[in-house]
Specification:
The complex is a heterodimer of chains A (471) and B (252). Chain A has 3 domains: 96 residues, no CATH class; 287 residues, no CATH class; 53 residues, no CATH class. Chain A is 26% helix and 30% strand. Chain A contains 11 helices and 21 strands. In chain A, strands 3, 4, 6, 8, 9, 11, 13, 14, 16, 18 and 20 form an 11-stranded mixed sheet that branches. Chain A has an 8-stranded parallel sheet with strand order 5-7-10-12-15-17-19-21, with helices on one face. Chain A has a two-stranded antiparallel ribbon with strand order 1-2. In chain A, helix 1 runs antiparallel to helix 2 and helix 10 runs antiparallel to helix 11. Chain A is globular and about 65 Å long. The relative contact order of chain A is 0.09. With 252 residues, chain B is of the alpha/beta class. Chain B is built from 8 helices and 12 strands. Chain B has a 6-stranded mixed sheet, sandwiched between helices. The longest helix of chain B has 15 residues. Chain B is globular. Chain B starts with a strand and ends in a 13-residue tail after the last helix. The chains are: A alpha/beta (471), B alpha/beta (252). Chains A and B meet through helix 9 and helix 10 of A and helix 2, strand 7 and helix 3 of B.
Chain lengths: 471, 252
């Protein structure tokens, strides 16, 4: 099927509700992936030749690379690349009326305290969420300090001198099959540049940018924080987002120059039909610090291993992650720490919760080569199982060569026992409340790392997940 | 009737009957003690009253003020006023004691109503003072790393905060030194009221020096075989448990 100006989106199946929704899009690249698809995207975006070439090279790499099913889940084979729409934008027509939104969805919004206006967007009642005012305010506030915060397509067009220097350098196209896919069809995502010495006081949020381009399927984010500058960035939201597209494959590249600090916070709550295959990596120069705080609650399969390459002396990398796998979900997450200079330090703390038939996997890679001195790594992964059907796997790969380093690894698996639930119920808590309290207790020390409003939402979200799992 | 009544209760675990037609009435305002040798079914009785899933009730009734509670969920029974002080309280990692008690109180409020935090802490601290518990226990995870004595005191603290109608204390004295025992007893005695009934399960009469019961029952092989006043506990202490084996079940 060729690209068309307007078309309707695939009907989607959700386990509950089973709703369909049709949106007329102004730009639709049609189904399947060919060079024409890439041309369509580049034409809409009026891109330069170098980026057109970049996309086409990436498509070749994508086609050549096999699926990583020799180590990853066979579930990846369920992705039908020929049936996917790789680019949709400019949809305006509300397709679903508020009356069509199920009581369950409404209750979820209510419980999470989502503002009225955002509910309609999230429920698919409005194709766009009008956040222009909030976004402009934030943009104006930071631009006074010389901070650039915009859509990555705008960044590419307006600041090629910065963009081109770092784009695809932290995560090369050929890093993995899905980074290649993203490189071919990317659209959306953020571009941020923070000038030397600027400490951005408030976290920047992708959420403010929703209407600039919808939550992309193939987001491409590039963040450069210059010498001595600091930035916190937040991505995603705790509200469930009802999605028509089942494949999401983002690439996020961070660059922290000398003495810079970047904190990147993600809360992922895609609906349960989504494959979320994400590549995230940061490059930390001398004495720079990159922290990934990553929370995965939704999706059918998430594969995500945020990484930090510690390129300069005394650079620090950290990954703090929480994954919750409910029935039918697989959270395959972890961290990648590449020590490439002396006295670099990395810290990985991962907590996963598996409920019902849910499955959590931790994959960690820590690499400290022989020629370095004084590197440190600490890795902790804890898994909590709720009921005997759940499954958890841990694959830590810590390669340390040389004897002038310190590494520490701890792993634990615990279970919310029947006795523990009985004890809490005897105090008057319902089964769902008891489980929720156990889960919140398990991740308590990590949730403190989240900004206040996120941690409150996170707690409510876990309450909801537990309520649903008890039925 | 204003009492916790257990009528002809047969219950057990995995087809093995442990309670064999037990009869017992604990009226409001009274403290009853159950004594008996290990394996007589004392802890089973406590768990069946609370509604533990592992135990199956084959016949009989547990009535709370005349209403059979056997069909109610564990948490529902709790909210109606049944409290069990556990012999082995569970640990809840990462959940602070204060938050746990607060969640339990919150569960008793109608939807949309919230606990008054200031009043809650005021009350919590007052009860902790009676039990000589350090304020730092509010922030510590429930029972995690607590000594045996601290766990038992924490059970009494929860009981005092939840203000139950009928409280069952399962071997609360086991593992306590004399000072801790005295403190626990002080908490229980402070709770004695015409509006509340207590069932103390104990192996030793020592506890009953500090919490003087109105009635003492002796349990053997899943039944109450003898009931009497405080002197029965002393008699048991004197003679040991061997002599009760020959006793016939008491009638309710």
């Amino acid at each position: 099927m060729s690209a068309a100006e307007t078309d309707t989106v695939l009907s989607i199946d959700r386990d509950k509700g089973d709703f369909h929704y049709d949106v007329d899009y102004k730009h639709d690249a049609g189904r399947g992936l060919t060079e024409e698809t890439l041309d369509f995207i580049s034409n809409v975006k009026e891109e330069d030749q170098w980026i057109r070439d970049f996309r086409k090279r990436a498509l070749k790499v994508f086609n050549e690379k096999p699926m990583p099913t020799h180590w990853a889940s066979k579930d990846l084979e369920a992705i039908k690349f020929d049936e996917i729409r790789y680019y949709l934008s400019g949809g305006t027509k509300p397709a679903r009326s508020w009356d069509d939104v199920t009581e369950e969805e409404k209750r979820t919004f209510e419980r999470l305290g989502i503002p009225e206006q955002e509910r309609k967007f999230l429920a698919g009642v409005e194709a766009q969420f009008d956040s222009e005012a909030a976004y402009s305010n934030v943009q104006a506030a930071v631009s006074d300090q010389g901070v650039i915060f915009m859509n990555s397509s705008e960044g590419l067009a307006e600041h090629p001198e910065i963009f081109r220097k770092w784009f695809g350098k932290v995560i090369p196209t050929g890093d993995n099959k899905f980074s290649a896919l993203n490189s071919a069809v990317f659209s959306g995502g953020s571009f941020i540049y923070v000038p030397p010495g600027v400490k951005v006081a408030h976290p920047l949020q992708a959420y403010f940018r929703i209407n600039a381009e919808q939550f992309g399927q193939f987001e491409r984010t590039l963040i450069i924080v210059d010498e001595g500058a600091e930035l916190t960035y937040m991505e995603g939201c705790t509200a469930p987002k009802f999605e028509t597209a089942t494949l999401h494959s983002a690439v996020v590249e961070l660059v922290a120059m000398k003495d810079a600090k970047i904190q990147y916070i993600t809360v992922q709550n895609w609906s349960s039909n989504v494959f979320n295959l994400v590549t995230k990596r940061g490059l930390a120069h001398e004495n720079a610090e990159i922290r990934w705080i990553d929370c995965n609650i939704g999706s059918r399969l998430t594969m995500k291993y945020p990484g930090v390459i510690m390129k300069g002396r005394k650079a620090r990398g950290e990954v703090i992650s929480i994954a919750l796998a409910n029935d039918g979900q697989h959270q395959d997450t972890g961290a990648k720490m590449i020590h490439a200079a002396d006295e670099t330090t990395s810290n990985v703390v991962s907590k996963s919760i598996s409920v019902g038939k849910g499955r959590s996997t931790y994959r960690g890679q820590v690499h400290i080569p022989k020629h370095l001195k004084g590197c440190k790594n600490n890795t902790e992964c804890d898994a909590l199982l709720i009921n005997s059907n759940s499954r958890t796997d841990t694959y830590p790969a810590i390669t340390v060569r040389g004897n002038q380093h310190a590494t520490q690894h701890e792993a634990s698996v615990s279970q919310v026992s029947e006795e523990q639930i009985f004890y809490m119920k005897q105090r008057g808590l319902s089964e769902a409340a008891a489980m929720s309290l156990s889960v919140n207790g398990f991740i308590n020390d990590l949730v403190r790392e989240f900004p206040m409003e996120y941690s409150v939402e996170l707690k409510r979200l876990i309450d909801l997940e537990m309520e649903d799992s008890v039925g | 009737m204003s009492a916790l009544e257990i009528k002809n209760l047969h219950a057990g675990i995995e087809n093995q009957e442990i309670l064999k037609g037990l009869n017992l009435t604990v009226p409001k305002g009274e403290v009853h003690a159950i004594m008996g040798p290990n394996g007589s079914g004392k802890s089973t009785l406590a768990k069946v009253i609370a509604g533990h899933d592992d135990y199956e009730v084959s016949s009989g009734e547990v009535l709370m003020d005349g209403e059979n509670i056997l069909d109610l969920e564990v948490d529902e029974r709790s909210r109606r006023g049944i409290f069990l002080a556990f012999q082995y309280p569970s640990e809840i990692p990462g959940v602070s004691n204060a938050n746990f008690i607060r969640a339990a109180l919150q569960a008793r409020l109608p939807k949309g109503e919230d606990i008054d935090a200031v009043a809650f802490y005021k009350q919590l601290y007052a009860k902790m003072d009676i039990l000589e518990m350090d304020r730092k226990f509010t922030a510590r995870a429930v029972n995690e790393g607590f000594s045996g004595g601290e766990k038992k005191r924490n059970e009494i603290l929860q009981m005092m905060m939840l203000d139950p109608v009928y409280a069952v204390l399962d071997e609360t004295d086991s593992g306590l030194d004399i000072d801790a025992l005295r403190i626990v007893a002080r908490g229980v005695n402070a709770m004695r009221s015409p509006e509340r009934g207590f069932l103390l399960i104990t192996h030793y009469q020592r506890l009953l020096d500090y919490i003087v019961p109105d009635v003492v029952h002796v349990m053997s092989d899943g039944q109450i075989v003898r009931s009497g006043d405080k002197s029965l506990a002393l008699e048991l202490e004197d003679k040991g448990y061997d002599w009760i084996k020959d006793l016939e079940p008491a009638t309710a």
